[in-house]
Amino acid sequence: MNLLRRGGTPKPERTPEAVMTLTEHLAELRTRIIRCALAVILGAILIMALYNQVLRFLARPYKEMCERREPGFCAGFDGGDVTFLNLDPVAGLSTRISIATFGGIMFAIPVIMWQIWKFVVPALKSNEKKYAVPFMTSSISLFLLGGVLAYLTLGKALEFLISWAGEDVQSTYTITSYVRLVMLMVAAFGVGFQFPVLLVSFQFVGILTPQQLLGAWRYAIVGIVVMAAVITPSGDPISLTALAAPMLLLYFIAAGIGLIAQRRRAATAEHAPVG
Q: What is the pTM of this model?
């Protein structure tokens, strides 16, 4: 009423985009980065404190593989725990730091994704915000699922690689090379499992359609196999198959999600009032 008496018009609601200046955006970005870094540091400290237990956990696929095979197949296994070599005076420290850093990042992934969400949400439209949380949740879940699959198939991959070294070759590994392989495998599988999230995103923004994905399934099979071969650090066919097969399945699941979303949009448009 006061506005009507004064002859004025109500001011538009001030959104976060309108209120925040570039300096304030940079300050908020700095705050988000600091929080992510603190989460990684806390996770790294936790992993550092439990280093021996974590190392035994990482070595379990190798140990279980050695237990399945005949004595002497693994030179660093005597029936108890596996033994790794350390050929560099600083390798022990660098390996501990690498494991702690990688574990800290894995530990902090939910925090990192949440901070990214809180930073970008003011720029999203209302109809886009409802998709952000499911996309972030699925990204984290698929990354962890890929990491678990890499861990479970590592023993078979090592068995294949050792068997191809030759009968007169005894295989043992340095701690640095083994840990690096485990981390690269987990990262490769985790990144590979983000492929369907990317496809669904492209469909939602109109870059791709589910019909295009389903029509190009032959090319998708070849492309996914090539991609899996490129990003698999061990290069063995077992790891390649373990990565490529789920990626193919997720490819068709992504196309199915696109079809469902497409039909829902069509139904909404059909029942929308005209004019």
A: 0.79
